[in-house]
Specification:
Number of strands: 11
Structural class: alpha+beta
Order of helices and strands: HEEEHEEEEEEEEH
Largest sheet: 6 strands, mixed
Shape: elongated
Oligomer: single chain
Strand content: over 45%
């Protein structure tokens, strides 16, 4: 017969940063003669992911301490801002042949971004919509999108949808150009 032995492996994580820095979740430590003690550290806090890369540290303790300091400073420098809430009206779009002649284009979801705390929040909106759509229009029908930028850098983008449905007008009302 064959004998099977149960072998237990003990995994040891050499990245002590994971234990000493609350938001750390990885990544790689090492030592190379030319680069000395080094680390590529990753951390995530409130949806913001940061990566710190250090090389040339004198010892392992310095590499973990400096990585934690850099990540802490990075999180302290950034703030989450809401650019638009869900259902926020961005524009009014014409409706051809409908029982109503217009509908609000609203954001399909909330859109947020991370920006530097030190910068003034001047956000530009670029709304991409046709001038009009043809009825019928369904509620939450995709109409276009809005792009938010700060100093030319895209912060976020969200689809614009119809706030409510607009039925197609009866042919007689369309023929005489009247809306009931």
């Amino acid at each position: 017969g064959r004998e099977f032995r149960r072998v237990l492996f003990r995994s040891v994580n050499t990245n002590r940063l994971i234990k000493m820095f609350r938001f750390a979740d990885g990544l790689k430590t090492g030592y190379y003669r030319e680069a000395r003690f080094n680390i590529t550290a990753t951390a995530k806090k409130d949806g913001l992911r940061l990566i710190a890369v250090l090389m040339g540290c004198r010892n392992g303790r310095e590499r973990f301490r400096e990585a934690a300091r850099l990540l802490s400073e990075g999180f302290a420098m950034m703030q989450r801002v809401t650019l638009a809430g869900q259902g926020e009206s961005m524009a009014v779009i014409g409706v051809k042949e409908g029982v109503e002649d217009r509908v609000h284009a609203v954001t399909a979801r909330q859109v947020e971004a991370f920006v530097l705390r030190s910068e003034e929040l001047k956000v530009e909106k670029e709304i991409k919509l046709p001038k009009a759509v043809k009825a019928p229009v369904t509620q939450e029908q995709a109409l276009g999108d809005v792009v938010f930028r700060q100093k030319g850098r895209e912060l976020g983008r969200v689809p614009l949808v119809a706030e409510h449905a607009v039925e197609r007008a009866h042919w007689f009302w369309r023929f005489i150009g009247w809306r009931p």
